[in-house]
Design goal:
Distance between the termini of chain B: 41 Å
Structural class of chain A: alpha/beta
Largest sheet of chain B: 7 strands, mixed
Oligomer: heterodimer
Low-confidence stretches of chain B: none
CATH architecture of the largest domain in chain B: 3-Layer(aba) Sandwich
Helix content of chain B: 40-55%
Number of helices of chain B: 10
CATH class of the largest domain in chain B: Alpha Beta
Shape of chain A: globular
Mean pLDDT of chain A: 97
Radius of gyration of chain B: 18 Å
CATH architecture of the largest domain in chain A: 3-Layer(aba) Sandwich
Strand order of the largest sheet of chain B: 2-1-3-4-5-6-7
Number of strands of chain B: 7
Mean pLDDT of chain B: 97
Radius of gyration of chain A: 20 Å
Strand content of chain A: 5-15%
Strand order of the largest sheet of chain A: 3-4-5-6-7
Shape of chain B: globular
Low-confidence stretches of chain A: none
Distance between the termini of chain A: 39 Å
Helix content of chain A: 40-55%
Largest interface: A-B, 40 and 44 residues
Order of helices and strands of chain A: HEHHEEHEHEEHEHHHHHH
Bound molecules: nicotinamide-adenine-dinucleotide
């Protein structure tokens, strides 16, 4: 597991909980320690809630071996990368990884918005590179998008789907297109909501109420407050640009203004709604 | 005494609308029945026709001739906005748009007010019947598809583009939206329930009325309608049914 941040730590926990031996790598000792501590805290909470036994929590932690030396990931059969969302960083990392690990190993990226194909093109054997897009928080969210880059071998895809299913997660197959499935198909849920409010079709509370009544757990505005209005805006712009400004994906000016104003959602205390005191 | 409504239209969606009213112990009269035997105490006209516009117009005009002037007329606003439907009638101020989608499941009903009724002081009072039928009323802007149908149709449309590009299977699309972002149903199974033709009407209405590319119905949806792959009602839509 490459990267011990939000996603890397979460995925490492998923892997270890299902019995895999995990080598967890990050560039700095601090980031690594922080990542490991977050996993420990999560396991501690689960123990308190009685979801797992102490012995089990210990075993899970025991299976995760943290390191800051990339050479130590050499024995890995599966390499999953979850480092910063920057193409050049990921490409450089994959070039180094290819030299470290065995030729049979699969190299996966957890990118949400970059092209899997562009990452894969950095290595000599792109046929063994694919996307494994986990959702946040990884230990909770069941879905994993298994993303096939332009050069990904069919066999790599099949192996990855079985691997994800063996982790107890739900794999879906998707080609390397902007936003993959969830981020792409959920675009209208968010952008059309802005649009309807902007055009006076409904106000935010009302729109959330109507969509909840239709069966959605949350309306688009309360959901954006939870995930972060900036995060959702970034998803909008990346899908829009990914499709060369296809009008279906055009973000709404209010989206940008919300971000500019610092109303980012719950984490900022205010977003579409007020939160906290 | 039980309410009586005059229902315009047939087909699966109108039938489901009728089923909702029967559950609420409301008597449902068809145009034919009302023509044969005059019913003086109709509480409301319910137009469950999405399109084409000619059919709606014809049905609404016939219905208007059969009821008193103050009887409210609720017209499905999936394809046409209420203002357009109102333009066909002699007493346009009594018209309101509504969404017949998932009427039985939703505790709210979306209603829209046509421009012609903007200054009609009695308009809001005529919505009271929905409260009697157990719905909380949400008055929204008068655009085709209102809020929920518009939101759903656009997600189905996007999914249809994904299918066209062969980027994923219908089953995986539905799984992704349920497991990746907690939607109660996948967009394609939802489309199969409400009818692929209904999705087509909503998109067509938005595209015609708002005139923007983002509402253009995916060619796959149009072809499915030609091929009668309308969903559960015909045994095949995005998925197959026995
Ligand atoms: N956060 C989410 O909701 C989410 C969901 C799905 C996918 N993703 C994707 O997962 C990836 C990671 O996101 P995150 O939210 O966990 O970020 P994060 O900032 O929490 O973690 C990134 C980690 O990568 C480390 N890192 C940076 N450069 C590195 C390098 N060259 N080698 C090794 N480690 C390095 C950092 O020290 C940090 O610990 C991104 O590609 C992101 O798009 C994020």
């Amino acid at each position: 597991m490459i990267g011990a941040g939000t996603m890397g730590g979460g995925v490492a926990e998923v892997l270890a909980a299902s019995g895999c031996e995990v080598i967890l790598y990050d560039v700095t000792r601090e980031a690594l320690d922080e990542g490991v501590q977050r996993i420990q805290r999560r396991l501690g909470r689960q123990m308190k809630k009685g979801r797992i036994e102490e012995a089990e929590a210990e075993e899970i932690q025991f299976r995760i071996r943290p390191t800051v030396r990339l050479e130590e990931v050499a024995p890995a059969r599966w390499v999953i990368e979850a480092v910063v969302e920057k193409l050049d960083v990921k490409r450089e990392l994959f070039t180094r990884l290819e030299e470290v690990v065995d030729g049979e190993s699969v190299l996966a990226t957890n990118t949400s918005s970059l092209s899997v194909t562009a990452i894969a093109a950095a290595v000599k054997h792109p046929e063994r590179v694919l996307g494994l897009h986990f959702f946040n928080p990884a230990p909770v969210m069941p879905l994993v998008e298994v993303v096939s880059g332009r050069m990904t071998h069919a066999d790599t895809m099949d192996r990855a789907v079985s691997f994800i299913a063996a982790l107890g997660k739900e794999p879906v197959r998707v080609k390397d297109t902007p936003g993959f499935l969830v981020n792409r198909i959920a675009r209208p849920f968010h952008s059309e909501a802005y649009r309807m409010v902007g055009d006076g079709v409904a106000d935010k509370e009302q729109l959330d109420r109507i969509l909840r009544s239709a069966g959605f757990k949350m309306g688009p505005f309360e959901l954006q407050d939870l995930i972060g209005i900036d995060i959702n805006y970034a998803a909008s712009t990346s899908v829009y640009d990914g499709f060369f400004q296809e009008p279906r994906f055009r973000p709404h000016p209010d989206q940008r203004q919300m971000v500019e104003s610092g109303a980012l959602g719950r984490k900022a205390g205010r977003g579409h709604y007020r939160h906290g005191g | 005494m039980a309410d009586k409504v005059l229902l315009v239209g047939d087909g699966p969606l109108a039938e489901e609308t009728a089923a909702f009213f029967r559950e609420k112990k409301v008597e449902v009269w068809s145009l034919e029945q009302a023509r044969e035997k005059a019913v003086p105490d109709i509480a409301a006209v319910i137009d469950g026709v999405s399109g084409p516009a000619d059919w709606k117009k014809e049905g609404l005009r016939q219905a208007e001739a059969l009821v008193f002037e103050q009887v409210p007329i609720f017209t499905s606003a999936l394809y046409t906005c209420a203002a357009q439907a109102a333009s066909w009638l002699n007493h346009p101020q009594r018209v309101a748009g509504f969404s017949p989608l998932c009427l039985r499941e939703m505790k709210t009903v979306e209603i829209s007010r046509p421009l012609q009724a903007e200054e009609d002081s009695g308009w809001t009072a005529r919505l009271a019947c929905w409260e009697r039928w157990g719905k909380s009323v949400e008055v929204v802007g008068d655009e085709p598809g209102l809020v929920f149908p518009r939101t759903l149709a656009l997600m189905v449309n996007e999914s249809a583009y994904v299918l066209t590009e062969k980027a994923a299977s219908a089953k995986d699309i539905d799984t992704a939206m349920k497991k990746g972002t907690n939607h109660p149903r996948g967009p394609l199974e939802w489309a199969d329930r409400i009818g692929v033709d209904q999705v087509g009407w909503i998109l067509k209405g938005l595209f015609e009325e708002l005139g923007e590319d983002r509402y253009r119905p995916a060619p796959l949806i149009r072809k499915m309608i030609y091929a009668n792959r309308l969903g559960r009602s015909t045994g095949r839509g995005f998925h197959r049914y026995r």
